[in-house]
Amino acid sequence: MSQAAASRHPLFAPGFQAKPWWWEAAEPPDRDTPLPDRAEVAIVGGGYAGLSAALTLARLGHRPVVLDAERIGWGASSRNGGMVSGGLKVASGALEKTHGREGARAIAGAAAASFPFIEDLIARESIDCDYVRCGRFVPAWTPRHYDALAAKVEFIAEVTGLPARMLPRGQQREALGSDHYRGGMIAEAGGSLHPGKYARGLAAAAERAGAVLVDGVRVKGIAAEGAGHRIETGQGALRADAVLVATNGYSLGPDGGSAMPWLARRMIPVGSYIIATEELPEATIERLFPGRRTISDTKRVLNYFRPSPDGRRVLWGGRASFGPTAPETAAPVLHRFMTEVFPELKDLRITHAWTGNVAFTFDFLPHVGVQDGIHYAAGCQGSGVAMASWLGHRAALRIAGADNEGFALADLPFPTLPTYDGRPWFLPAVGSWYRLRDRIDRIAA
Known about the structure:
Low-confidence stretches: none
Radius of gyration: 21 Å
Mean pLDDT: 95
Helix content: 25-40%
Structural class: alpha/beta
Shape: globular
Strand content: 15-25%
Number of helices: 13
Number of strands: 19
Strand order of the largest sheet: 1-17-13-16-15-14-5-7-6
Distance between the termini: 37 Å
């Protein structure tokens, strides 16, 4: 669907735009910083992970250079839902089967530490990004999903260090103005922010500390050269003593190239789609979102949604498609998902629709490590606001030789599939199967 066709669609408000609503207040700016010839540390990827790493390195006395193929913060960092998780996905995963009881607790604890880290970072750097510790409600798609949440709720409270409790279906409207789900879990280790403002504020903090941020530089390859590395880009070569690749869901370029093919073969980029609605009365938002919590359900093909920071719109995200799809085409699908949960919003129109890549790994864990002398930090499983910031910080400590306590997410086995090259050809089939399983689960319940 073209922008012109979208302007005539009954679900789209006048002036509809196929771009992030966040950009109305904080679109990533253009920079004209020239590419230097040398860098002590070169960071490939100007999202949360790369910027957080740059800030940490600069605070430790290094002068990092951050390179991004687009604008700094252009990718998922200014496109996501702004939902800040305390590592809940990792903490609720089936870790003990592969890592044992102690290993599972160490990994979950390392992931959960991302939440206090980002809260401290925002406060310390005085980043104005509408941050609120609001908690998260995880509604259960089926009674079996509710039981699975209940089995994990004490563990989640333990590893996050903040309360978590179950809310039976009869009390669900205390957290969500809908009867669509079967109860759920409230976890206090969660928050919300404006991701565009956070990306911009994090970039400004890194620059104040001494980092150099360079836009529009696509890295074509990295090779060892002497004791360091030679980084080939579309604008020439850069030599660096150390390199961190933090490209996450954008590890494979549009032409199939990659700064680090080894990493791209371990990333599964998945398009996530979001819509913003017209403004609503404050009383309606209060009824739909008591406590203004963020929401992420337990479906395999999940929905995630929240009120906008100003409390005037609904922001609704999900996997509207598992293949390349224009935001204008995905938007009516998300609108349908939204009105299944909130039928009273059936006549509410859409003002913005956009998409961006998140990155999954084959073991559903974040990873920090070194391969062929190149550092990497990636794999946030769609919960990267706190996690990517945390991974970048931890990778920076390793590069600076300041990681004295160890990190349970570092140097884990990092699986891939034979012949996989970073192009997730299997996603449409997997997505269709997951949707079918969601329907079967609901019918069976």
